[in-house]
Structures are given as C-alpha cells and as structure tokens.
Amino acid sequence: MLVDVYDTVLRTDGLRRRFVDVGRPEHEYELFLAHALRDAMGFALAGTPVAFARVLTDALRTATGHKLPDDALAHIAEGFTTLPAFPDAEPALTVLARSRIPAWAVAQGSGDHTSGALDATGLRTYLRGTVASDDLGVLPPDPEAYRLACAAARIDPETTAFVSAHGYLVHGAMRAGLVGALVLRAGDGVPASIDLPHVTGTTLLTTVEALLDLPS
C-alpha cells in the first residue's frame, strides 16, 4: 500500500503559527501552499523537474510579498520537519501493521526530509519506507509517478492501493492502475471531476478498514 503523507498523515496547517512567528498573517499559509502545488505541477508538466525545496522557497517568497529575510523563510520551511500527525494516522497504520499489509509513505520533496518528519511523530516505525518525488523525478498525479513509486517499493501496481485525502492524487493513482482510496474529512464529498474511488472513508482509519474489506 502507498500512503500519501502531507494532509493525509501529517497536517500541513501546523505551518500556520510559523507565519505568525515571523510577523506575517496566518492566512498566507493557504496562499503559499497553493503557489507551491501550482508551480510544482507546472514544472512537472513542462518536463523540467525541480527539487521541491526550491519550489517551496519561491512560493514562500511570493506568498509573503518578498518581504521576509532568508532566516524567516527558513523558519517557516523548517516547520515541515515538525508537522503534527492527524489523530487517526497512528490507529490506521497500526491496523495495517497488524494485518501484515506493508505500507510505504509517498510524498512531494526529499525522502530524507519526509522520513525525518515521520520520525518526529513516531509513525515511521509503521512504514516499510518512504518514496519521494525528488527521487522519482516525476510528481503525482502523473500516472508515471505511481508506477515508479511501486517499482521503487518493489510492489505490483495492480495489487497496490493508494490512499490520500487529495482527490486529484487518488485520480492519478487510479489512472496508473492502482486501487484508489480517498479520505473525506470534514464532511467533504467526492469531487465530481475525478474517477470514483474504489473506497472512501471519513477518516484515514475507516478508509483503510474499507480497503481491507475489499474482495481479494
């Protein structure tokens, strides 16, 4: 199984307070995240992969109006290493471990940084490893990214599930031949623009349990 990290296992809204720490309004967190995802996907579509950390730094400068010195930008970026986990993350990963279902973390950026963030929450122990976009050279939701992730983990895409709280990422995984599992927190519905996921749940735990209930 492939498990998306950011905003599925770890909460990126933990960065909000860091914007306030450096004298910026909290709402710039949303603007920063939107810029980062837009630019990362733009580079991927252009066929010129860029290290995600560079994309994040540029997005931070833009979202904060180019008004912060480098040390303030670094303070915000360092927040990625201390993101809190969702309360349902450990129970879900525990269920997978007890069911002997191997799970790999999938994330944008550096594998080392993602592994460090998971270590900080104690969740890395439940995972077989981490597959990161910087290492793959392709960014989800490009279907090739999921195929390469499966190859890196030495698992078969046709028998692998991808679980995420992002509909567009689940859509890409299904286009690559994986089983799609979408976490619908806060009463969200399935976006009408994506392929219907194989399973959904209102928490990561219920989504994982629904996957385990699928016929073999």
Automatic annotation (TrEMBL):
SUPFAM superfamilies: HAD-like. Pfam families: Hydrolase. Keywords: Hydrolase. InterPro entries: HAD-like_sf, HAD_sf, PGP-like_dom2, S-2-haloacid_dehalogenase. Gene3D superfamilies: HAD superfamily/HAD-like, Putative phosphatase, domain 2. This is Tetracyclin repressor-like C-terminal domain-containing protein. It comes from Pseudonocardia yuanmonensis.
